[in-house]
Amino acid sequence: MCSYYFLEVTLNVLDKKGNDIDVNDRQFSFYIKEALKEIFGQVGSSINFSVLKFVAGKGIIRCPSTFYVKFRGALTLFGRHHSNTVAFDVHRVSPCLIAFITNDSTYEHVSSL
């Protein structure tokens, strides 16, 4: 069994007027921590996770496999922080980080026969 799960996640934040708010890597981590805390309280906020890569609102996150279901649930259910609308979009999940190297939607198999 794997120790960690890796998630490719996009964070979308809108203000009261519906304007996009750009987030940096620290804000990205903050919103994840707030999602865990809001849904699962102090226990949720104590879940260790790492943002391995963050570029333009999209990040690759590592979380312990024992907390994967809670982690994914918190990201899915979290929707509002103060007056901002927040949405996490999970694009890919894998227990193996190397799976993020390829893009399954553009892969073409070439037969060597």
- Could you give the count of β-strands? 5
* Overall pLDDT metric: 87
At the fourth CATH level, what is the homologous superfamily? Ribonuclease P, Pop5 subunit
Oligomer: single chain
Give the neighbour order of strands across the main sheet: 2-3-1-5-4
User: How do the SSEs run, as a string of H and E?
Assistant: EHEEHEE
CATH topology name, in short, is Alpha-Beta Plaits
Which residues form runs of ≥5 with pLDDT under 50?
none
Largest sheet: 5 strands, antiparallel
GO biological process, one term: tRNA 5'-leader removal
GO molecular function: ribonuclease P RNA binding
GO cellular component, one term: nucleolus
InterPro entries: Pop8-like_dom, Rnp2-like_sf
Helices and strands in order, then pairings?
Elements: E1 4-14, H1 25-45, E2 50-55, E3 58-64, H2 68-77, E4 80-81, E5 84-94
Antiparallel strand pairs: 1-3, 1-5, 2-3, 4-5
Helix pairs in contact: 1-2
Task: Describe the protein.
Keywords: tRNA processing. One of its GO terms (biological process) is tRNA 5'-leader removal. GO terms for molecular function: ribonuclease P RNA binding. This is Ribonuclease P/MRP protein subunit. It comes from Cinara cedri. The structure is a single chain. The protein is α+β, with helices and mostly antiparallel strands and 113 residues long. The chain has one domain: 2-Layer Sandwich (Alpha-Beta Plaits). It is 27% helix and 33% strand. It has a 5-stranded antiparallel sheet with strand order 2-3-1-5-4. Strand 2 and strand 3 form a beta hairpin. Helix 1 crosses helix 2. The radius of gyration is 16 Å and the shape is globular. The model has no long low-confidence stretch (mean pLDDT 87).
